[in-house]
Design a protein that fits this description.
93 residues, alpha+beta, 2 helices, globular
């Protein structure tokens, strides 16, 4: 991608250099900073090796993130944008 076509902050992209998916958080020098969809440590990515995710790819990546979190016991409430649940109802059962 050239500077004119570099993705904007908040865009979900695939980094062909690392094989990872992330959100564009900013830029530093010639690189863009990406963060995993579910949060975590940022990494630098070459803008020429990035491509925006289509709707189906974004959905797939978010589902994969939710599945990974459910396997670690963190659950859906830890994913940005997930619906809130009232834990007091769960505790009362």
């Amino acid at each position: 991608m050239t500077d004119d076509s570099a993705p904007h902050v908040g865009t979900a992209v695939h980094d062909d250099g690392s094989g990872r998916v992330g959100l564009v958080m900013g830029h530093e020098g010639p690189y863009l900073q990406l963060r995993p969809l579910g949060g975590g440590r940022e990494w630098d990515a070459d803008p020429d090796r990035l491509r925006p995710l289509g709707p189906a790819e974004l959905l797939s990546a978010r589902v994969a993130e939710a599945n990974a979190r459910s396997r670690t016991g963190l659950g859906l409430t830890d994913i940005r944008g997930a619906p809130r649940t009232d834990r007091s109802e769960d505790d009362a059962r």
